[in-house]
Design goal:
This protein is α/β, with parallel strands linked by helices. The chain has eleven helices and nine strands. Helix 4 links the parallel strand 3 and strand 4. Helix 2 packs across helix 11. Bound molecules: phosphoric acid mono(formamide)ester and norvaline. Norvaline (NVA) binds next to helix 6. Norvaline binds next to helix 6.
């Protein structure tokens, strides 16, 4: 299958990622100025959600409509994929009808298998391993607020989860240093750490990770699919709460990001999202703009002669 997919940032060059993000900023400006821009008229995005979502669903659906196209929401409850139809068969069928497919799933291998049988682009809307669309938005947000992230220091505090793995990929592609502070046993997967070499270090002490950092980011302690571990995680992660006092140890121009949804009183203090250094709402908005740029990059325009 010849289509270009977006399963991981590792599939893209730094130049491609940079141009998608800069295009996201341009599309944001067009929208803010009320300019109609519909290159994907008559194009359709299929969206398969095996896990819950607010931001990913709304941003992809609104984004397709704003680009002149449409999006179809599918949950496993309503499709044959949820009743055991082979992933490859679903991919073959859907890709004969739609122009791109976004999937939020559990095992990353589901995405890889779908993409292997899809003739249209497949986009990772979050897997147990990665959340690359969120990183497009986070990198756009840093660029807008502080300029290039190249050579900067980023601290990831908490779970070495899908978001953390995507930060590792971003460290490679955008050329920054990443310090991960996590409890023992919750490190990011060795395969991602091995990819990053000395760009990424793992420490136990959040203060050490945050010291002098230009960006601090965290995420929920219990990701979707891990609900049975909630009590154990609450206890183990307690020393990893990000607070205003912790941010005070960072660079004076530090930004704080959270991909949301946030659990105030757990991974962040009750007041952290109200701190002027926190930019979660800009991050969330940029999901829309960055993904519109990604869709424009991946889905060919609709103008074709009959
Ligand atoms: N950040 C993010 O992906 O949010 P949703 O789970 O609401 O899509
Ligand atoms: N790590 C979280 C991210 C949610 C956007 C999860 O997978 O549930």
């Amino acid at each position: 299958m010849s289509a270009r997919h977006f399963l991981s940032m590792m599939d893209y060059t730094p130049e491609e990622l940079g141009s998608v993000i800069r295009r996201g900023i341009e599309l944001k400006d067009l929208r803010n100025r009320g300019v109609l821009f519909e290159p994907l008229k008559n194009r359709v995005l299929g969206m398969i959600f095996e896990k819950s979502s607010t931001r990913t669903r709304v941003s992809f659906e609104a984004g397709m409509i704003q680009l002149g196209g449409q999006a179809i929401f599918l949950s496993p409850r309503d499709t044959q994929l949820g009743r055991g139809e082979p992933i490859g068969d679903g991919a073959r069928v859907m890709s004969r009808m739609v122009d791109a497919v976004m999937i939020r799933t559990f095992a990353h291998s589901n995405l890889v298998e779908f993409a292997a049988h899809s003739s249209v682009p497949v986009i990772n809307g979050l897997s147990d391993d990665l959340h690359p669309c969120q990183l497009l938005a986070d990198m756009q947000t840093f660029l807008e607020h502080r300029g290039s992230i190249q050579g900067k220091t980023v601290a990831w505090i908490g779970d070495g989860n899908n978001m953390c793995n995507s930060y590792i990929e971003a460290a490679i592609k955008f050329d920054f240093q990443l310090r991960v502070a996590c409890p023992e046993g919750f490190e990011p997967s060795p395969a991602f750490l091995a990819l990053a070499g000395d760009r990424v270090s793992v420490v136990r002490d959040p203060k050490q990770a945050v010291s002098g950092a230009h960006l601090v980011s965290t995420d929920v302690w219990t990701s979707m699919g891990q609900e049975e571990e909630t009590a154990k995680r609450l206890a183990l992660f307690a020393p990893y709460q990000v607070t205003r006092q912790l941010l005070d140890l960072a660079d004076k121009d530090v930004l704080f990001m959270h991909c949301l949804p946030a659990h105030r009183g757990e991974e962040i203090s009750l007041d952290l999202l109200d701190d002027p250094r926190a930019v979660p709402w800009d991050q969330a908005e940029n999901r829309l703009h960055a993904q519109k740029a990604l869709l424009e990059f991946l889905v060919e325009p609709a103008y074709r002669s009959a």
